[in-house]
Amino acid sequence: MPAPSPLPAGLPPLDPTALAHGRRVAAHLHDLIARAGGWLPFEQWMDAALYAPCLGYYAAGSAKLAEGGATPAGDFVTAPELTPLFGRALATQVAHVLRAAGSNRVLEFGAGTGALAESVLQALDEMGIAARYAIVEVSADLRARQARRLAACGDRVAWLDALPEAFDGCVLANEVLDAMPVRLFRWDEAGRLCERGVVSQHAGAFARQDRPAPPDLAAALAERMPALPGYASEINLRAEAWVRAMGGWLRRGAALLIDYGFPRAEYYHPQRAGGTLMCHLRHHAHGDPLVLPGLQDVTAHVDFTAMADAALAGGLDVLGYTSQARFLVEAGLPALLARQMEGADAAAQARAVAPVQKLLSEAEMGELFKVLAVGRGLDGPLPAFARGDRRHML
Length: 394
Ligand SMILES: C[S@@+](CC[C@H](N)C(=O)[O-])C[C@H]1O[C@@H](n2cnc3c(N)ncnc32)[C@H](O)[C@@H]1O
Hints:
By secondary structure, this protein is an alpha/beta fold. It has helices at residues 16-35, 42-51, 79-82, 84-101, 115-126, 140-149, 215-222, 237-249, 264-267, 304-313, 324-330, 333-341, 346-360, 365-368, and strands spanning 40-41, 105-109, 132-136, 157-159, 167-174, 183-187, 193-200, 206-212, 232-235, 250-262, 278-281, 284-286, 297-299, 302-303, 317-323, 369-376. Mean pLDDT is 93; it is low at 1-5.
């Protein structure tokens, strides 16, 4: 079995069980590369590293998300894990969509530990909305974790194995688009477009290797940016297909897509010459996706212009686009925080404020994260986009 690649500098040592799992994942990837003739497109490599049954990062049993957010367990922390106030603020907009769509159905993709479902359902209950909540989750491990956390909700929560044929209601996806496998490209020094793939090296390591880009990749990029010799980045055609396909089944309602990313002009800015691919392991972020496959998260920022275009191509309307901070403020997060702080002692108040600051701060999640709303059949804007809508920037 091949030896794992060396750890990036600064990472804490991994335990022998994790390293043994990493060796099994690496062996699987070397096998895939061999079966593909010695070169595997990065998109397929990332797909297997994250989702290969029983092996991939999201498919096997590692801790991944840090529940509660205060302790550094897991590899990264997401907004719903930081504070239930994130879900409660989101729920104000979910309620608006449900009323406008005449439905009580919520459909969440990639529900992580179930934290968002829990807080949204509680808030909807308090608003007198008896919602039915469905989850589509590709990770069997996370699905089991969600089922444990949401057991008290009984049959109001259900897991779907396939997309609905038709859906009226509100769709949620927090940090899901960034977890979909991307294609990597680079223009070589002569200005020829290449697709980046992965090859096996001696001693069990992996290496990047570029090949001339196939016509579909060249066509997709021709619409997005000029050729820039030496420039490398990524394109998320799977996420685009996912949003486009939503147009086939979202009959009446809206999807709130929350993630880190930018409009296209910023995404493919000439100065962002190395792309946005990022890996997370034990709360360390680094840029090498080829080490420790199966043990670390691999993500790319979202090109929100591409997601809006995909929605339009699928026959959906683009209902709003803004920063997470603006969205949460307009959705009433400050008032929800104030209510939580009433009568609390100073320590409890500080515990409540810290994660909200992280959600709203421009230097943390407030500006990097965006909310894109797409949908069909709703009259008027969603309240959280009434001020600060940035659709004109897409
Ligand atoms: C970074 S985690 C975010 C989890 C959760 N939404 C949160 O905010 O804590 C990404 C999640 O998306 C799921 N996922 C990735 N691709 C998916 C897809 N095509 N359909 C449904 N879930 C998906 C993963 O299994 C995982 O649960």
